[in-house]
Design a protein that fits this description.
- By secondary structure, the protein is α+β, with helices and mostly antiparallel strands.
- It has a single domain, classed as Amidase signature (AS) domain (Amidase signature (AS) enzymes), CATH 3.90.1300.10.
- The protein is built from 13 helices and 15 strands.
- The strands form four sheets. It has an eight-stranded mixed sheet, sandwiched between helices. Strands 1-3-2 form a three-stranded mixed sheet.
- A hairpin with a 5-residue loop joins strand 14 and strand 15.
- Helix 2 runs antiparallel to helix 3, helix 9 crosses helix 10 and helix 9 crosses helix 11.
- It is globular, with a radius of gyration of 21 Å.
- The two termini are 14 Å apart.
Length: 473
Amino acid sequence: MTELIWQGARELTRAIRRRELSCHDLMAACYDQIERLNPDLNAIVNLLPRESALRQATRKDDALARGDEAGMLGGLPMAVKDLQAVQGFPTTFGFVPYADQVADQDGELAARMRRAGAIFIGKTNVPEFGLGSNTFNSLFGATHNPYALHKTAGGSSGGAAAAVATGMLPVADGSDMGGSLRNPASFCNVVGMRPSMGRVPDVRAFGWLARLSICGPMARTVGDVAMLLATQAGYYAPDPLSLAEPGDSFATPLDRDAGKLKLAISPNLGGLPIDKEVEQRIEFAGETFAELGASVEHACPDLSGAMDVFQVQRAANLAVLGRELDTRLPTWREHAKDTAIWNIEKGLELTATELIQADVERRRIYHRVVRFFQRYDALLCPAAQVAPFDIEDEWVREINGQPLATYIDWMTVCCVISVTSLPAISVPGGFTKAGLPVGLQIVGRPRGDFELLRIAQLYEQATNHYRVKPGIV
């Protein structure tokens, strides 16, 4: 049963459809791993009792025996990020006053995964309100890194990344505003993809102006990420930015060779402070692509002003949260962490001029990156500016001796890519001398999600970094 949890999600669903594997046996294997590892990792929260989950799996087996369709995720245990609504489960946002906020229906993301056959067993842990790239909160505590328990798993999809990395879940969903899929994927040696804006539906916060956050998939391999994206993506009328391309377009084979690929590489994304070992791993990635036959040049798009735009538009998004909190729970500041209060207050103080100027500047940045990607198929850069750091440190305060002013500055390498709305993916890029994972961020052309997945799989197959399991398993 132990080896079962390390099979790929595509292989597992194929075996279930062929009736070579029961949903019950897969669920039992996952729960064996959860019961063994989750007490140390704290990745999955509000977990269903084992017997309740096994009953769901047995009902799924019975339905398949009657001839029901399995679905693309048929029989896979799923724990949804604790920012998304799943019927019957609390949606806590890692916030103590929301501990008993139980959803009476699925949100659109969960509904799509349920229709595809997923079996929901719990939620994955997040930092409070999903803010910050260190997953901890006062309700459930911190999520630990499976490669070094005294390090953070990253965030805000830290619970998802730790669960996938250790075989507790075959795949997981996440969301990404300033790196919340890419950063924990980097820290936990898994794959996390931030799709193009509008690829996966989202009706929270901003519909047009200042939209930054995107939901997306996480898995141990690029192919499994593509399979989950195929169930998440697709047109959704209530979302004004929703793309029309159907999700099942991502279920087709990703195979390609590196011939004619023209890649840009920037190990410091135009001069950011980056840990030296992280930079080295990115350079190695460029060499790997070159050995495969791709053309690789050191180049970087002009992203000047992008972090200022991100700070303003992130704060604007959080102003929406702040007004909701003021209405529902006027005493919310007594329960929230300092960084959350600071960022929400910053949003509430924004002026109309600041919002408009940020939107104008974002358009200029987009025009510049579009011109850049007319010359290149993808950009290679770090998915995080450091390797996993100590879990007791709320955020990274300096890199290479350079002090950082705020709790998100150390994630600039992801934040500025978010501003472009381009698809980006973090794939395992190797390890530091201390054995800590490093992620390679690959940024694709506008709406070039499928081609990005194909490029990422090329690197994955050439390196096999994802096969290095955490010591805890």
